[in-house]
Amino acid sequence: MSSQENPRENVPAEQDAAHGAVKVADDPFADPGLPAHKPRIQDIDERAAKRSERAVAFLFTLSMLATIAFIASYVIFPVDKIVFIWPIGNVSALNFALGTSLGVALFCIGAGAVHWARTLMSDVEVADDRHAIAAPPEVRAKVMADFAAGAEESAMGRRKLIRTTMFGALALVPLSGVMLLRDLGPLPEKKLRTTLWAKGKQLINMNTNEPLRPEDVVVGSLTFAMPEGLEEDSHDFQKQIAKAALMIVRIQPDDIKDKRELEWSHEGIVAYSKICTHVGCPISLYEQQTHHVLCPCHQSTFDLADGARVIFGPAGHALPQLRIGVNAEGNLEALGDFDEPVGPSFWERG
Fold it and tell me: Which of 125, 168, 169, 303 could form a disulfide with 63 if both were Cys (CB 3.0 to 4.6 A apart)?
């Protein structure tokens, strides 16, 4: 046998297949061997198609109701309400309602789309040829024709109930994201503009939990206080103390440069917000000789002898001062709330 001869050219087709050889058909675009199409019950029974249509519409409608429930949850449930849900335990009612309603809304849209595709859209498998990437005009025309045929097979035009409810579900779901933007700015109740301090509220020492008296504050000391009635084991303690935290310093009255600061103090005892006006860090460093306080986060420095104005760092404005006095029992008390919102200066841009 010469080197040019094929030793298997005379082997029967059945034996050639047994040896694992692949026969190439004369026509490369012949039938690839797809099984015969079997129609679904929805393809032959319009009543079954109507049932599927109603099922899809029900899922889209349920998505709309869940989206409305998501939005309503913001109004119905307070942030601090805790409920017991078995087997999870104690959870925030608002968080649970938001998560459940949004999950149902998104799931129903997906389930409705899947059920629509599997029962009402065309499921005929079509084998198409591969072509070069650059499509000639006739191919583009074919693509547009296929798109139009697909739109027709989807029954979008004929199934008006599905189309209407789907558009309703898709239109309402983005409102969930809009509601989430609520927490990015001041709330309608102006919760960021006020604190627990009010006229008659005693200054409570955060170390001893006892009312502060003028003689408890010595020159050069730094004391931290919270409003009377705020308990450390309360559910909203962290939220309230984040706005109401107070630092108290006693300065010789002759060293106070700001006239209003002197009027709002008591015998040289000045009370300022502990919350830095840069990004809200707690201020805790005090220099006795200069009466400067320093924020440890970004080194913003405030002069407590001059209205707590900013003398260094990125803070945008002075620390808010709390006007204080002494009540009938001889304890230090607030004579009102801070004269401006505490913390970062969101309100200056409002």
Answer: 169
